[in-house]
Design brief:
The protein is of the alpha/beta class and 402 residues long. It has two domains: 176 residues, Rossmann fold (3-Layer(aba) Sandwich); 198 residues, 3-Layer(aba) Sandwich (Rossmann fold). The chain is 33% helix and 23% strand. It is built from 13 helices and 21 strands. It has an eight-stranded mixed sheet with strand order 12-11-8-13-16-17-19-20, with helices on both faces. It has a five-stranded parallel sheet with strand order 2-1-3-4-5, sandwiched between helices. A hairpin with a 5-residue loop joins strand 9 and strand 10. The protein starts with 6 loop residues before the first strand and ends with a helix. The model has no long low-confidence stretch (mean pLDDT 94). It binds ligand PMT.
């Protein structure tokens, strides 16, 4: 009963995924939450209020002007009652209305007056999700502190395959549990996260690098911070904004990254190394632009230090080291080899050959290989969801250490 006595307001808007909300409601109630349901007019087309009334054991609210003894001014009463608002599904229309501050029904009106944190589960066709308006609305709401139950990839209402499916009810319920337990389940924990590529210069114009966008590492840093950890994010060049509240250090080359990580690691409880670090660098960096020559050019490369192995072998008994492994073949065998060689506690394997995994995309598909003989494969999830589940793993491992 992890939500015993918690007051959750469930706002349902009119998308096909509304048919899953009775399951979400049951999952919340099973954990002990008290749930009040508010529906938009369109939501009633996808799920009956009666079902939700029976499951929640409370009236379902839809009408702005209904007389409700418990809340004499309904939208104000509900707004004040909620400790957390869950919007599921959050359609493009609902997100647009919220982002623009409209108050044209009970749900949007109460949201204007509600100071409780919001967890929203967007649900729509992929093109609607990608539309610049929707993206702008998501950014605006995020600026107000909205948290997301990230939409998944799969079959959509239209029958098309794509991103935009509402996160599964158990995933949303898990996030609600984490929200309440996490007003800091990682409080007091110092975590070092690496992200992005490293860049090895050849001359003032050219360089060698890789395709890492930094999304995986930034998601880890953001989620760890949200869960109360003190976070240091060391990142190679990316197009991303560092998450709020995180100590940020930008680096370029592997040697720069090594210097920063080796200085920080001794003070940390954990390090999660999601950066794609160049294993080789040019033996010489030309001070001037290299000129065209006689046809053939050979660039001599020298090996970079393996930072993770160096951290692994300096690791103290209370410290936890998580490495990533990006492979294209023999993934598990190579991940196991890295786990041992680098003295990691966990290696998170992702395979470039799998669609929706690895570089650049918003999702990942990972297999965990740990130093107690455990191996676990996770389905495709958003990088934020992968980050959260990895942080669950880290939290448990740190607890066991204590
Ligand atoms: O940034 P994104 O676009 O979101 O993509 C995410 C990702 C694919 C970059 C990420 O999920 C990932 O897999 N990161 C590790 C990529 C990689 O370099 O893997 P590797 O198998 O070469 O390295 C294994 C581990 O050793 C990694 O933790 C790496 O940070 C570390 N390493 C590698 C080489 C080196 N010289 N020093 C290191 O510390």
């Amino acid at each position: 009963m992890k939500l015993q006595g918690r007051r959750v307001l469930l706002g349902i808007s009119g998308g096909i995924a509304a048919y899953k909300t009775p399951e979400l409601l049951r999952a919340l109630i099973k954990e002990g939450a008290e749930v009040r349901v508010v529906m938009t007019a369109a939501a009633k087309r996808f799920v009956t209020p009666y079902t939700l009334e029976v499951l929640s054991r409370h009236p379902v609210h839809m009408d702005m002007f209904a007389a409700v003894a418990e809340f004499p001014v309904l939208h104000v009463g509900l707004a004040q009652w909620a400790e957390l608002v869950v919007l599921a599904p959050a359609t493009a229309h609902l997100l647009a209305r919220l982002a623009c501050g409209l108050a044209d029904d009970l749900l949007t009106t109460l949201m204007l007056g509600c100071t409780a944190p919001v967890l929203a589960a967007p649900s729509m066709e992929e093109h609607m999700l990608d539309h610049p308006f929707t993206q702008e609305h998501l950014r605006r709401l995020e600026g107000l502190g909205y948290q997301w139950a990230e939409p998944a990839t799969g079959e959509l209402a239209s029958g098309a395959f794509g991103r935009g499916r509402m996160a599964e009810p158990e995933e949303i319920a898990g996030q609600v549990v984490r929200h309440f337990s996490a007003a800091g389940d990682l409080q007091g924990v110092k975590v070092l996260v690496t992200a992005g590529p490293t860049v090895e210069d050849l001359d003032p114009v050219r360089f060698i690098t890789n395709r890492s966008s930094g999304k995986m590492g930034y998601a880890l840093a953001a989620q760890a911070r949200k869960r109360g950890a003190e976070v240091w994010l060391v990142s190679g060049p990316t197009a991303l904004e560092p998450p709020a509240g995180v100590a940020f250090k930008a680096v370029r080359s592997t040697l720069e990254m090594q210097e920063v990580l080796e200085a920080l690691f001794p003070q940390m409880h954990a390090a999660i190394l999601a950066a794609a670090v160049a294993d080789y660098r040019p033996a010489q960096v030309a001070p001037q632009k290299i000129k065209r020559g006689t046809g053939k050019m050979v660039i001599e490369l020298v090996e970079n230090p393996d930072i993770s192995a160096r951290l692994g072998h300096s690791k103290q008994p209370h410290q936890v080291l998580i490495g990533f492994a990006m492979e294209t073949e023999d993934g598990v065998a190579r991940a196991k080899d890295k786990l041992k060689r680098k003295n990691c506690d966990l290696v998170v394997l992702n395979n470039l050959r799998e669609e929706g995994a690895g570089f650049g995309v918003d999702t990942n598909i990972v297999t965990l290989v740990d130093n107690q003989g455990g191996q676990e494969q996770w389905p495709k999830m958003s990088k934020h969801q992968v980050a959260d589940r990895l942080l669950d793993w880290l939290g448990q491992r740190l607890k066991a250490r204590r």
